[in-house]
Amino acid sequence: MSNLCEFLGEPEPTNLRKCIKCGEHKSLDNFGFRSYGKNGTQTEQRNDCNQCRTEQRKKLDKIKKYYPLPDLRTYRCPHCERSQEEIFKTGSWINTKKKTCFIPDHDHETGEFRGYICDDCNTVIARAKENVNTLRNIADFLEKRLTNPAECSII
User: Rounded to a whole number, what is the distance in angstroms from the first to the last CA of the chain?
Assistant: First the structure.
């Protein structure tokens, strides 16, 4: 869309958004909201369109059907090793309607189920775009920072 707008010398329409999943430009009413304010107002629009979101939800529902949740009283995230009780104690789950902090992790290319992990670890993996080198570099940086903080000054 922006190439066409640039070619025509026109500004890009502000009522369109590009879906990060399908890459299509769609009107804003095709995107749900990620978060809501304390008074119920919609505060942040999603980056994936409703159609892609529905397809994703169907895939996750299938995974949950074939791979039921582990026993939440004893289960720990395989990455951060925290239990649901420990994660809930952080307070970040107070205002959510979710029943558990564990979600099915899956390969986005193949759809293969990889196990249940906590939402925090899932976010870390997603933000790193599942790039092992990025995650390793972050871990290396943190290890250096903990052992020799003076060497790791960013400023």
Answer: 39
